[in-house]
Amino acid sequence: MSCTTCTTDKTGIPKGCKSNGTCASGGCDKLSVYDWLSNMTLPGYQKKFDHIEVRFKNGRKAFFKNEPNLSISIGDIVAVECKSGHDIGDVSLTGELVKVQMNKKKVKIGNENIFKIYRKASQKDIDIWQEARNKEQEVQRKSRLIVSRLGLKMKLSDIEFQGDGKKATFFYTADERVDFRLLIRELATTFNIKIEMKQVGLRQEAARLGGIGSCGRELCCSTWLTDFRSVSTSAARYQQLSLNPLKLSGQCGKLKCCLNYELDSYMDALKEFPNTDIWLQTKQGTAMFQKMDIFNGFIWYVYKENPMKWHQLTVAQANEIIEQNKKGEKPYNLEEYSNELVLDEPQKNIFENVVGLDSLTRFDKPKRSKRRNNKNRNRKNNTTNKQTNQKKPRNTEVNQKKKNPNQNKNKKNQNLQNKNTRNQSKK
Questions:
Q1: Residue 365 belongs to a domain
Q2: 177: domain range?
Q3: Quick check: 251 and 265 in contact, CB under 8 A?
Q4: What is the pTM of this model?
Q5: If we measure between CA atoms, which residue out of 284, 335, 279, 343 comes closest to residue 312?
Q6: Pairing of the two strands 61-65 and 115-120
Q7: How far apart are the first and last CA of the chain?
Q8: Which of the listed residues 154, 178, 200 is the one where a domain comes to its end?
Q9: What digits encode the pLDDT tens for the residues 30-79?
């Protein structure tokens, strides 16, 4: 869906059209639409639907009447009617799909509040529009300084200029009600434009600003998600997720919208599972629920008397024990069912090493730990210091001779006696 100028060149480096979301292809914008009815022709007696969908900054869309019957296609930049002056936007959808979108958003066809299209935008209109868009960042910076100086408890998240540059809409978030009458006067005098303040929620703010989620992809609300359904902690409980607010909350600070995506499949799988509040009654004792594996169909129970030993049961086995308890019967223990489960388990596939017996890190140099290196260095330093500090020892044998002269004489006498005894034995 990207335009030809966004493709890569011969060297492999992306060119980039640098149009910042205003190119005619519509592939670079948020909430881009594919018209799958564009190749189909209408019957001869049916007229083309005279309403179109126009997209503005950050995925904001609205429906307009094509009263002048202009030949408009997706990607054209048009000048449309608004409350004061005119606005500039690009066409995101035409034809019969616009009727489907209007029914989905509950907009009545022929409503008086729907504005009309003036004309296709000229080059002068586009230049004024681009100048107004380029001023948004600087106006936002100055307006935030004014808000902090007035001491208002609000956060200006985004600013959107009208196509003619005569009006600006300030989007803000606030926990409490804010009296911004003084703020509007000061902003109107400093920027010489009409001011409109619009409060948005935290999710709408994240959708407008965009970002990268914890999954590594762009936020769903800024790319394709249009309706914000309520998300509760029960969705996390049904999916056996830990109730950690840091992991369950998204960039907007609310619970992640993706918690609702797989909730229906979990609810269908949990229909066969027994109620976790029911305890299993056996002759050995009562067993409590610990955890479950939903898609593999396993439940773990623990005896009250021995909570360290877990017993794995299937859903059918747990339901069977519960039905026996309703009839007043009690099995002997849970070990019978868990042993049956182990015997009935199929042998798991033994996966071989695809690479072979050789390890992938056989050519890597062994890494030495820093602690060992530091210890060896300290030992070397200690030995060198001892050698330098200690004096050279004298010859110990010489010292011993000087100290004990009588000991040497005794040794000579003993040697002589030994020789005499040997001679006598030979005779």
A1: no
A2: 130-200
A3: no
A4: 0.64
A5: 335
A6: parallel
A7: 122
A8: 200
A9: 677 778 877 778 787 778 888 999 999 887 899 999 988 888 888 899 99
